[in-house]
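Quick one, tokens below:
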């Protein structure tokens, strides 16, 4: 006996709309489909065509921008694409060419920096690149070389320290490396040797214990170990087994 009653299906869809996939299609009523899409926009994938209306598509996209991929072409209006991009900029890739305006690009990049990669390079303006890097510094990888200035690199590293990997060598200053390591300890991997000082290594390891693997051996002294072990337990817990073993080996614990 099928125990998937109308009431049970509603409870399940209110919890996670995508369970609609496991409900027999003849039980997917208009009401149930709306409940599912309000709970999880991606439930739109399992909505019968007859109920996949413009209104339901909007409900789904307001809940989860990624849902745009399941919206029929006729319903991908300029307004709906904007709703979706405000929710999740990565859906820019599904926006029809005639709706890809400068304003929409800014909306997409403001909440998903890597949306910059879906924009033609000749349309990646300085303003757009700045918006993208403020949202996610690692979007610097998609910034044209002409805009990878000291200013842009600083914006990127202040947002995401790991963005240091995409910073041209000429802009990897002592100041920028410190900004990056305070933001993301693993950025220590991309710090030039001359700037990988004891102080900077300590900053990086206090941010993320895993940065220990990038600390030069001559800095791994007992004194450094004591300072590192005095960090918050929450940070110390970031030390993986591989790095703890290195600690034991280096300090003969």
């Amino acid at each position: 006996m099928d125990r998937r009653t109308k009431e049970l299906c509603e409870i399940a869809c209110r919890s996670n709309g995508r369970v609609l996939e496991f409900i027999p299609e003849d039980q997917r009523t208009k009401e149930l489909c709306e409940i599912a899409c309000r709970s999880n926009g991606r439930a739109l994938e399992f909505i019968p065509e007859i109920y996949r209306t413009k209104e339901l598509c909007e409900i789904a996209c307001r809940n989860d921008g990624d849902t745009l991929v399941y919206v029929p072409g006729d319903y991908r209006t300029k307004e709906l694409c904007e709703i979706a991009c405000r929710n999740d900029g990565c859906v820019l890739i599904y926006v029809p060419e005639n709706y890809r305006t400068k304003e929409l690009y800014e909306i997409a990049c403001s909440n998903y920096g890597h949306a910059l990669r879906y924009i033609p390079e000749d349309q990646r303006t300085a303003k757009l690149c700045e918006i993208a890097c403020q949202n996610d510094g690692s979007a610097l990888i998609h910034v044209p070389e002409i805009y990878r200035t000291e200013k842009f690199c600083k914006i990127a590293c202040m947002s995401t320290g790991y963005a240091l990997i995409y910073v041209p060598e000429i802009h990897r200053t002592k100041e920028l490396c410190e900004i990056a390591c305070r933001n993301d300890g693993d950025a220590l991997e991309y710090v030039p040797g001359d700037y990988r000082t004891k102080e900077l290594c300590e900053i990086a390891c206090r941010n993320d214990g895993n940065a220990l693997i990038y600390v030069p051996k001559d800095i791994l002294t007992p004194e450094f170990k004591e300072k590192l072990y005095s960090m918050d337990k929450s940070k110390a817990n970031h030390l993986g087994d591989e790095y703890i073993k290195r600690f034991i080996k280096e300090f003969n614990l």
